[in-house]
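Researcher: For the record, we're logging two predictions in this thread. I'll number them. Prediction 1 follows.
Model: Prediction 1, sequence and structure:
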Amino acid sequence: MSTHLEHGSAQTAITQLYDSWLAAVRAQDVDAIMAHYVEDVLAFDAILALQFRGKPAYRKHWQMCMEMCPAGEREPVFELRDLQVQAEGDLAFAHALLRCGHKEGDRVDAGWMRFTAGLRRVKGAWKIAHEHFSAPFEMPSGKAMFHLSPDDDGSQVRPVPPGMSTITPHIICRDAKAAIEFYRKAFNAMDMPFGCLEVDGRFLHGEIMIGDSVVMIAQEDAACGSLSPGTLKGTPVALHVYVNDVDQAWKQAIEAGARQIMPVTDMFWGDRYGVLEDPFGHRWSLATHVRDVPPEEIERAAREFMAQAPWKENA
């Protein structure tokens, strides 16, 4: 067989393999999915772990993915675009763009990723030996850009601006500029590019980033109905922040001028957690997750906590 014919035969076989693989994923059939891999597969998925070595580990991951995203009444979306295959001998390389998600009626909730794979011919049959899924991410938030489309050249206006999440806290402070300075010291906040807007010395809007999240800051303005916690004599809202070391973060915030509401304590749901109030009346809960707790244990501990809570005595 000529090299050209052999290459064409491999391309056809590998294209058919991926048609079968896609169908197995859409059917959420883990046994059928795993039939496409060699025993010593090495996979770099886009979520949870840097790598999965061997079929048992990768099977467990696929099973978790199926349980995490059950189709239910929805139609699974799992498709390749622009699949390219290069093969020589018993080795092949493939790359494509992959779309993953669900469809329900006219609504499609799916995102695009980059996909590459290495394949090996074993006893005449092509199998996947290496798989790599990835998505570009934006700076400085580090968020994956699953919203991109294959035809997006970067010039399209984005419905959600770079760095922003679906929900962004927008807090009102009596002295917005002083609040931003406090958040820099207390929470290592960074200024967003063009994040502050002032006109003729009047502060209109501010944006800072704490960790991977944007917080918007507004100046109190009674004429606009924008009132701060100081004016309202309190706030019904707390901003929750996960950090790597809650004790260090707590100490830093207190030294910057925050007031303790609840000391840092190991809590029954697995977090080391505390609550403080900033000088502008906003409450912040800081936490580090220190252990994974089964749901039934959390429920049992919650019942015990409620039974012992001090407010029970005054009920």
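Researcher: Logged. Prediction 2.
Model: Prediction 2, sequence and structure:
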Amino acid sequence: MRQLITVTFLGVILTACFAATPGSAQQPYPQQYPPAQQQPYPQQYPPAQQQQYPQQYPQQQYPQGQYPPPQGQYPPPQYPPGQGYPQPQYGPPPVMAPQQLDQLVSRIALYPDGLLAEVLTASTFSNQIPDAARWADEHAYLHGDELARAIQDDRLPFDPSVLALIPFPSVLDEMARDMSWTQALGNAVLAQRPDIMDAVQRMRQEAYNYGYLRSNQYVQVIASPGYIEILPVNPGYYYVPAYDPRVVYVRPRPGFYVGSAIRFGPGIVIGAGFSPFGWGGAGFGWHEHNILIDHHPWDRTWANRTAYVHPYAERPHYNGPQAEHHDYHAHEEHRDGHDEHHDHH
């Protein structure tokens, strides 16, 4: 009898133990840690937000063939106000790495040497660029020596390096619309001129190696040991190249016609009337890292940037708005569109 009671008591204890231990101890965990799709994170960071970036930075922002913008389309309200003369005072800029300089000069590295020399020198007077671009847009109907006479008659208060770009309103427009780039370029020209010139040569070499940079009816491309020159076919005519830096410095994709990557705008005549603005002999001494203006080395640096050191005539003096004006009279044009007459009063 005692043995029966003992066995029965042990059976009750074992039954209670099995009842307190579930068949699977993992069943409550899915309730404590729900599946990932039930977490709130996908709602806080929806995938749809990633679709906003192509709308903010559309590919159509830089259409091929419209770089720089066409001449004559420079709305003055989009230009920042000019700051006049002299340059603002601040400390020296930080030294830029070669990769940064490559990116900085990529949009102008394939300009003909003379035009590139004028762009580099003019960028050091970045505070004058917006007003010069505005004046160039307002007088876009003048060309050649008539434009040179208008510049002198209006006694424009800009440095000759800036006046030299007035025949190129598309270039001035590019510089005026992106003043942060223009100021960075000017600072680098003053503080790191040899590095800037080396960056130009690196970018030209890339475009040459991939077959984009070649001689044509607009420019002569002369590859010498250590440097590449880009010269106008006719010294009196300059053509502004239009290209996408994202294309001409990378290997072309299979089947891409490299000859279509660089296009040229209309020819711009640079005659004797622009000699006072440095066009008598603009270019580079690549081996010596010299920028040449009027066949002379351009000596402006960060240290002497407040001084007037150009090898030109004395600085023009601005006496306020002038009474003279510049009229455009178009006679009946022939079919070739060349019978035009410009008067300067």
